[in-house]
């Protein structure tokens, strides 16, 4: 249900008995937010038999057939005559005339690599990087970190507190924890203000620890702060709960992981990524 | 003939790369120049060299038609056909039947009971209703037991009718041989996601309680939606 390029998904009728809650579709909003970005990046292989006119026709056709979807990338694919289109974290594959769309993920059956997923992780990674240094509260080991994870946190979340209780152990394992805020209750709520207060503290690390584990922190919240940007980023990334842990390669691990578990996951990922 | 050779080559390659796909489930997709592969409700598109797969739905953006859905509709119909003998039917006299629908129900589902209240109206309009069971909480649920109860009586329709009206079926006693496990397995295989789920003659589906008149209009092609198609 991740790919919502075309609003054609059959939803359960309202008056139906469901075995589970229908999935919500949080990414439409993110796609809508991107509408204001006009530039489409184009990456075509040299071998691509598509000239400038054909490319323009393809873009026009996509714009006509997928109104309201802000395409930010068009790329060549290993599929003959098929192009990858990207809107935020959503991907699809269109025919050269822009008429047919395959809404799904591309896989290389021979190498076993989930190509679209690799791309999606790359995009997440870029989004997290651009949220960037200086915009997070980081607990780093004394030695240079082996891994840096980005954790979306809510000061009023039990499992986030649990994670933070072990913060020294993560550091001892060589993991730097870079916190971004995702007050799940949204803007103009207590949790949101608490995040702002922590950000505005002179010693952010101490304030965050106090807020999570030391019975609360209160201070001024009227400094310029990135909490709203963090919240928007969380929405764009499709995060639904906290803690949400992003590995260095952009893979999302939802929920609390003990230091031991997290090290194992990180080691496995490094192996899977291979040398280089 | 060149096409046939290519198809053979893709099938050979896929026997290795995607062994779960039966070779007759590999077809050329005219729209994309790719090959469509199907394993039940899961459908994907592979390159002629059998190396790359996009798993997902093919959509004609011009007509807004989900081409892949046609395959799923057919798969649904084929699957349901195998349950035909054990469906519990509520139908008008043979000569009055104009349409036939299949409905996956859970006896333990409020909306299924609501829908059942309108079955007489549907029958009146020439619509035969064939019930199949999807006890959505699985084998050890109340819904599963109630479905079995319908088969554990002399008159299956009568017993089901009583239960869908909130009554205990008279003279019905567990255990007995019933096809409910088979219905459930089929429902899961064709990815029924809630009840009631109505399957129309072309294999397309509607979820939830649908008022009788709406259903009659859909089946007779009198809806705004169908009016827009030519």
Give a quick set of tags describing it:
heterodimer, A: 5-stranded mixed β-sheet, 5-stranded mixed β-sheet, 9 helices, disordered N terminus, B: alpha+beta
What does this structure look like?
- The complex is a heterodimer of chains A (276) and B (230).
- With 276 residues, chain A is α+β, with helices and mostly antiparallel strands.
- Chain A has helices spanning 27-33, 52-65, 115-131, 158-165, 167-172, 190-200, 204-213, 227-236, 259-273, and strands at residues 41-43, 73-76, 82-87, 90-95, 100-108, 137-139, 147-153, 175-181, 244-246, 252-254.
- The radius of gyration of chain A is 21 Å and the shape is elongated.
- In chain B, the strands form 2 sheets. Chain B has a 5-stranded antiparallel beta sheet with strand order 1-2-3-4-5. A 5-stranded mixed beta sheet of chain B has the order 6-8-7-9-10.
- In chain B, strand 2 and strand 3 (42-46) form a beta hairpin.
- Chain B has 230 residues and is α+β, with helices and mostly antiparallel strands.
- The two termini of chain B are 35 Å apart.
Please outline what is shown here.
The complex is a heterodimer of chains A (276) and B (230). Chain A is of the alpha+beta class and 276 residues long.
Question: How would you summarize the topology of this molecule?
Answer:
The complex is a heterodimer of chains A (276) and B (230).
Chain A: H1 27-33, E1 41-43, H2 52-65, E2 73-76, E3 82-87, E4 90-95, E5 100-108, H3 115-131, E6 137-139, E7 147-153, H4 158-165, H5 167-172, E8 175-181, H6 190-200, H7 204-213, H8 227-236, E9 244-246, E10 252-254, H9 259-273
Parallel strand pairs in A: 1-2, 7-8
Antiparallel strand pairs in A: 2-3, 3-4, 4-5, 6-8, 7-9, 9-10
Helix pairs in contact in A: 6-7
Chain B: H1 2-17, E1 26-29, E2 34-39, E3 42-46, E4 52-60, E5 65-66, H2 67-81, E6 88-90, E7 99-105, H3 110-117, H4 119-124, E8 127-133, H5 142-151, H6 156-164, H7 180-189, E9 197-199, E10 205-207, H8 212-220, H9 224-228
Parallel strand pairs in B: 7-8
Antiparallel strand pairs in B: 1-2, 2-3, 3-4, 4-5, 6-8, 7-9, 9-10
Helix pairs in contact in B: 5-6
């Amino acid at each position: 249900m991740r790919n919502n390029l075309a609003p054609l998904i059959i939803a359960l009728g309202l008056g139906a008995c469901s075995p589970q809650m229908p999935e919500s579709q949080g990414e439409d909003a993110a796609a809508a937010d991107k509408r204001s970005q006009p530039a489409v990046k184009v990456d075509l292989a040299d071998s691509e038999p598509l000239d400038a006119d054909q490319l323009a026709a393809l873009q026009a056709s996509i714009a006509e057939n997928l109104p309201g979807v802000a395409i930010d990338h068009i790329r060549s694919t290993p599929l003959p005559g098929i192009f990858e289109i990207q809107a935020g974290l959503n991907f699809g594959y269109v025919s050269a005339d822009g008429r047919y769309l395959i809404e799904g993920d591309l896989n290389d059956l021979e190498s076993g690599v989930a190509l679209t997923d690799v791309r999606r992780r790359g995009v997440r990674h870029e989004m997290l990087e651009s949220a960037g240094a200086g915009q997070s509260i980081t607990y780093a080991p004394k030695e240079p970190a082996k891994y840096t994870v980005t954790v979306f946190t809510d000061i009023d979340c039990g499992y986030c507190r649990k994670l933070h209780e072990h913060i020294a152990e993560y550091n001892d394992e060589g993991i730097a924890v870079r916190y971004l805020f995702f007050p799940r209750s949204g803007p103009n709520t207590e949790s949101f203000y608490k995040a702002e207060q922590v950000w505005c503290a002179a010693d952010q690390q101490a304030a965050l620890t106090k807020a999570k584990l030391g019975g609360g922190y209160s201070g001024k919240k009227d400094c310029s702060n990135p909490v709203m940007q963090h919240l928007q980023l969380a929405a764009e990334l499709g995060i639904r709960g906290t803690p949400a842990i992003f590995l260095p390669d952009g893979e999302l691990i939802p929920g609390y992981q003990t230091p031991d578990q997290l090290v194992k996951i990180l080691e496995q990922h490094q192996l899977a990524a291979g040398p280089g | 003939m060149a096409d046939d050779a290519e198809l053979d080559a893709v099938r050979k390659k896929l026997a290795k790369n995607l062994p779960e796909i039966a070779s007759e489930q590999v077809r050329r997709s005219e729209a994309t120049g790719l090959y469509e592969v199907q394993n039940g409700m899961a459908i994907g598109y592979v390159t002629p060299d059998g190396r790359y797969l996009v798993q997902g739905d093919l959509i004609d953006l011009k007509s807004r038609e989900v081409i892949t859905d046609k395959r799923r509709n057919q798969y649904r119909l084929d699957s349901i056909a195998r349950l035909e003998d054990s469906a519990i039917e509520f139908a008008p006299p043979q000569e009055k039947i104009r349409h036939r629908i299949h409905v996956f129900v859970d006896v333990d589902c409020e909306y299924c009971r609501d829908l059942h209240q309108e079955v007489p109206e549907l029958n009146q309009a020439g619509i035969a209703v064939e019930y199949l069971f999807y006890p959505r909480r699985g084998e050890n649920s109340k819904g599963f037991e109630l479905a079995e109860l319908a088969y554990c009586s002399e008159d299956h329709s009568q017993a089901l009718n009583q239960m869908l009206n909130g009554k205990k079926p008279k003279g019905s006693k567990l255990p007995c041989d019933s096809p409910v496990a088979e219905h459930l397995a089929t429902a899961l295989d064709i990815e029924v996601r809630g009840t009631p789920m109505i399957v129309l003659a072309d294999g397309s589906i509607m979820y939830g309680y649908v008022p009788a008149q709406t259903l009659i209009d859909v089946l007779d092609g009198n809806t705004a939606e169908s009016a827009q198609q030519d």
